[in-house]
Amino acid sequence: MKRPEMVATFGPVDLGIEALARRWLDILLQQEGCALTAYFARLERDEDAGEYDFADETLDLSGREDLERRISRHGGGLWSCRVPLGFANADVYSAMFSPPEQPRQTTLHLQIESSITRFTEEQPETREPFTAFLVRVAHQIGAPWFIAGLHLPMRPVTRETFLQGGGPHTQPYVVGWKPDILDARPLLQQWGVRPEEVQHSVLGYSVVTRFPSR
Q1: How do residues 59-107 score in pLDDT, each as one tens digit?
Q2: What is the pTM of this model?
Q3: Are 40 and 134 in contact (CB under 8 A)?
Q4: In terms of Cα–Cα distance, which of 141, 176, 147 is closest to 14?
Q5: How many domains are contained in the chain?
Q6: Cα-based distances in Å from 162 to 54, 91, 157, 180, 188
Q7: In which domain, by residue range, is 125 found?
């Protein structure tokens, strides 16, 4: 049975959307050696739910300059490329958005092909490199925290949302945070996580993993 996509949400980052897009594209295209596909979609916001969805999908994106122009024109967007995750390459859709009332609180939301969900659920040896990838992305873009798992809606992960594990329908597999920015003890107590079970990255993030047992 096909598994759902793995989703990861980072931020909000204290940068305007154009600046964060340039930073993320530098990472993807220059550091990771990825190549953009021709896919692009606008994002539309449901004002009542505070969630985003894609609209007006096209397959005519001509490259980075074109992508940056579209992000600037539409105030965000959704695009794709193939990304190395340390144990496999995956098709990753990057969405970037910020609420109109908080233009310098920008979120990066990654939708990662469903094979990665299956790998991390069924092959425990893939979990460490996947977690390291998430921590590295958070560090490189300057995100204060992140959540990765299943059924994460396309919306900002506020402090309150993070401390709820992403929301009532989210199945979190990895959470990470900067302990000098966020006190995660309410979430750890809710999950019954002991202090010694929290992992600590050399990049300054604390991490808890909750992959299903097999």
Answers
A1: 999 999 999 999 999 999 999 999 999 899 999 999 999 988 888 999 9
A2: 0.95
A3: no
A4: 141
A5: 1
A6: 23, 26, 6, 15, 11
A7: 6-209
